[in-house]
Every structure is written in structure tokens, then in C-alpha cells.
Amino acid sequence: MPEPSPVFPPLPDGVALRLLRRDDGPALAAAYSRNRDHLEPWEPARPTEFYEARYHAERIPVELLGHGSGRAVPLVLERDGQIVGRVNLTDVVLGAFRNVHLGYWIDGALAGRGIMTAAVEAACAHARDELGLHRVQAATLLHNEASQRVLARAGFERIGTAPRYLHIAGRWQDHVLFQRILHDD
């Protein structure tokens, strides 16, 4: 029997946070295509097929398998039936670590409205309350001040810098590392 979809509180500006669905391929392709220029400086170089519905239709079952096995929580932000962003909890590690990685983006037309901060807070509450995790970690490019503000508002603390951490926009780039501790016990 499939695991029930998590329920999240409503976000500002009529945006909802929900689990990725099998039929989201066309909507994801449209969202990424609409935001291609907005996202390009912050993401890995993408092949042309990334902006096509078929690409996402093939990837979605893999993401949902990760969710079903407890390794990931692939989420989308939706407004008026249109996908306007993503929040992903990936690389869930249990045992003594109880950690997860956080990644996110929002439609350029909705940036700066507090939506992503609310979405990150909701994802952290889910990681703590539903997954029983202790720590969420995130990384931003050194010059991604908007993303760093989101993390700071959502209770993350800066813990260091990782040289050549991720291959973004066609080259290895340094990142600022952040963490949010979910319990103090």
C-alpha cells in the first residue's frame, strides 16, 4: 500500500506545498522552461531534453521510489494548478546521524515574497515530526544572497565554506554550508 502523501500548511500568496505526482512531467517541464534564465546561474548545466515533459515523466518514478523507500521527499510548490517551484529533502540518513539535505527553488515571478521561507520551514517541520530527523543541511553559492536570506529566516546557521563543492553552471563552485538542528535533546 502506498505511503500517504504528507500534508503541509498553506503557504503565502495561494501557494501549496505537496508531494510530487506521477503526472507532473508536463507541469515540471513548463516550470523549468519558464524559469530557465532565472535558474541557470544556480543549477547544474542542463541538457536540452531537461526542458521536455518526457524527461521529467521518466525521472518522476525514480524520485517517488526514493520517497517510498524513505530516502527522499520530492515536493513541488503549486499555485493555480501550475508548478512554481520545488523543495527536495534528499539523502536521508538515519542511525546516529539522522540528517537530510535540502534543495529548493521558486519561480522568478514569486521570489522575494516569503513563500520559499515558509516552504523551507514546512519541510523542516516534516523532517523533524514525520521523519524523526535531527539535522537539515543546505548549501548555497557564495554569491546567492537571496537563498542565504531564506535559510537564515528559516533558522539555519552558517557552518562553513566548501571549496569546489558542486558543479554549477558548468564549473566547480565554492558553497556556503548551513545547518538547522531540529532538536536539542
Structure description:
This protein is α+β, with helices and mostly antiparallel strands and 185 residues long. It has a domain at 12-134: Aminopeptidase, CATH 3.40.630. 29% of the residues lie in helices and 33% in strands. It contains 5 helices and 7 strands; from the N terminus they run E-H-H-H-E-E-E-H-E-H-E-E. The protein has helices at residues 25-34, 36-39, 53-68, 115-129, 145-153; strands at residues 16-19, 73-79, 82-93, 99-106, 135-141, 157-168, 171-181. Strands 1-2-3-4-5-7-6 form a 7-stranded mixed β-sheet, with helices on both faces. Strand 6 (157-168) and strand 7 form a beta hairpin. The longest helix has 16 residues, at 53-68. It is globular, with a radius of gyration of 16 Å.
What is the fold-level CATH name, i.e. the topology of the domain at 12-134? Aminopeptidase
**What's the arrangement of strands in the largest beta sheet?**
1-2-3-4-5-7-6
Indicate the percent of residues in helices. Answer: 25-40%
* Gap from first CA to last CA: 34 Å
Order of helices and strands: EHHHEEEHEHEE
Broad CATH class of the domain at 12-134: Alpha Beta
Which architecture name of the domain at 12-134 does CATH use?
3-Layer(aba) Sandwich
> Based on CA inertia axes, which overall geometry fits?
globular
Q: What percentage of the residues does DSSP assign to strands (E)?
A: 25-35%
Mean pLDDT reading:
96
Report the count of strand segments: 7
Q: Main sheet, how many strands, which sense, barrel?
A: 7 strands, mixed
**Low-pLDDT stretches:** none
Structural class: alpha+beta
- CATH homologous superfamily name of the domain at 12-134? Gcn5-related N-acetyltransferase (GNAT)
Helical element count? Answer: 5
Using only CA atoms, what is the Rg? 16 Å
